[in-house]
Amino acid sequence: MNGKVLYERVMVIFGGVMIFFYLGLGLFIIFHPLFNHVEKFIRILFGSALIIYSLTRAFRTYEKVREAFFSGNNSDE
Fold it and tell me: Which residues does 64 contact at the CB level (< 8 Å), separation at least 6?
């Protein structure tokens, strides 16, 4: 396995972790009582934006996972 393939695989895994980070942050902003001093509409707006971003990132990461791990043109030597 050469360095470029390894780098691509590590970045895909990092991208997968970031999906859960953005999803969790969006849910945290919407539901956690720490943000009760912020108007509910603003919390839902920002939290929903983060959740939607995590979903779009999930679709892009899915394609990258297929390319990095399951394509037949990678050399595993």
Answer: 8, 12, 15
pTM: 0.82
Q: Is the residue at 28 inside a domain?
A: yes
State how far the Cα of 4 lies from the Cα of 10, in Å rounded to an integer.
10
pLDDT digits (tens, 9 = 90+) for 24-51: 999 999 999 999 999 999 999 999 999 9
Q: Read off the tokens for 16.
A: 């997968």
Domains held by the chain: number: 1
Rounded to whole angstroms, how far apart are CA atoms 43 and 65? 32
Domain that holds residue 32: 3-70
| Residue found by looking up tokens 């979903």 in the block | 55
Rounded to the nearest 5 degrees, what angle is found at the Cα of 21, between the Cα atoms of 32 and 17?
Answer: 155
